[in-house]
Amino acid sequence: MNIFRLAGDMTHLFSVLVLLLKIHTIKSCAGISLKTQELYALVFATRYLDIFTDYISLYNTCMKLIFLGSSFSIVWYIRRHKIVRRSYDKEQDTFRHHFLILPCIILALLINEKFTVKEVMWTFSLYLEAVAILPQLVLLQRTRNIDNLTGQYIFLLGAYRSLYILNWIYRYFTEQHYVHWITWISGLVQTLLYADFFYYYFHSWKNNEKLQLPA
Amino acid sequence: DDDIAEHDEL
């Protein structure tokens, strides 16, 4: 464990808790894409298959349970909660996320480190996580206004993966044989997708004005 | 190459 990875995990944890707290307290999911949340639940479900078979550390298991629990709770809130579901605008959240899942499955079957069920599922979860934010970014472009909690949520999500890139660089230089091209490339693609959001987020913060994405 | 080190990251 190194400081970059710990900071990345804490940032990631904080992003999902910010979102869960927002939905739970103001009983609204306005501006949140259910599709992105469903994709994240799928990412965790396919990545943490080994939670019951391979024990790595108490920290690792606890964090996996928290991520699984929070992502499925968020999906439940938006789909089932009688008040929250009313604030979900399904007309705007129209990104066909099934078009993301199939290419990720095919890519995971073609490009992986080892052709085993667990490894292919793990690779699928990496590719899917890289593109999971797209429905949310499209929704933001459409609704144009971003309430600051949603903005913070997306900022933290992007920041967590950027910290993970620093972690991979650190591990590459400090550990023998630590080479995971697939992880590195999908993590880089994921962070680049946030780049333009970061640009507008930083400028709105610097000019202390409401965050507006260009049409 | 050695067996893929299990994925110890989240």
TrEMBL record, chain A:
Principal place where this protein is found? endoplasmic reticulum
Secretion signal span? 1-31
Q: What domain of life is recorded for the organism?
A: Eukaryota
Give the subcellular location: Endoplasmic reticulum membrane
Q: Which residues cross the membrane?
A: 55-78, 99-115, 121-140, 152-170, 182-202
GO MF annotations, alphabetized: ER retention sequence binding
Which of UniProt's keywords are assigned here? Answer: Endoplasmic reticulum, ER-Golgi transport, Membrane, Protein transport, Receptor, Signal, Transmembrane, Transmembrane helix, Transport
The membrane topology term of the UniProt record is: Multi-pass membrane protein
Listed under GO cellular component are:
endoplasmic reticulum membrane
- State the family named in the UniProt similarity comment for this chain: Belongs to the ERD2 family.
- Protein name in UniProt: ER lumen protein-retaining receptor
Organism field: Kingdonia uniflora
